[in-house]
Design brief:
mainly alpha; 8 helices; globular
């Protein structure tokens, strides 16, 4: 059974939140804000994952434009991962990556999903791709954590 601590989930969600901030900092002018996206992000910041998921699901069905859709999909993936909805999380991260193959946060989030599913090779591939796009503390730590988990599992199997 998959179980994740709230502290780990919130730490992972910080990746998602920063992605939306980046998209919102662009110079693209939108005639109207998406209320569901705003409410979803506010719920995410407050740690109310169920409400965040509800609003983000509604938001990604709207015409957000790629610059806002990709981080919204990645955020939804992170929220669903934290809620243990791994199949849905994988689907939304994959869709984000399909929209923008250079959005490293979606690779980290999908890597987290793969890791939780026990698909270490797939997780390693996604973490590595994220690190290739943007080598930063988060991508380096994700790879190191995966390697430590694999070592621990091998030691337990002996």
């Amino acid at each position: 059974m998959f179980k994740i601590s709230k502290a780990v989930a919130v730490a992972g969600l910080l990746v998602a939140i920063s992605g939306v901030a980046e998209a919102q900092a662009t110079k693209t002018l939108y005639l109207s804000e998406n209320g569901n996206l705003e409410r979803g992000m506010e719920s995410l910041r407050q740690g109310n994952l169920e409400v965040a998921a509800k609003h983000l699901r509604r938001a990604v069905r709207a015409d957000l434009g790629t610059e806002r859709l990709v981080p919204a999909l990645s955020n939804l993936c992170a929220v669903e991962y934290a809620l243990g909805e791994l199949a849905e999380a994988e689907k939304h991260c994959s869709k984000a990556i399909g929209e923008d193959r250079h959005f490293w946060r979606a690779y980290v989030n999908r890597g987290n999903v793969y890791k939780a599913q026990g698909s270490y090779d797939a997780a390693y591939a996604d973490y590595s791709r994220a690190a290739d796009i943007s080598s930063n503390d988060l991508t380096v730590n994700a790879l190191a954590s995966l390697e430590a988990d694999q070592d621990r599992l091998v030691a337990q199997a002996k």
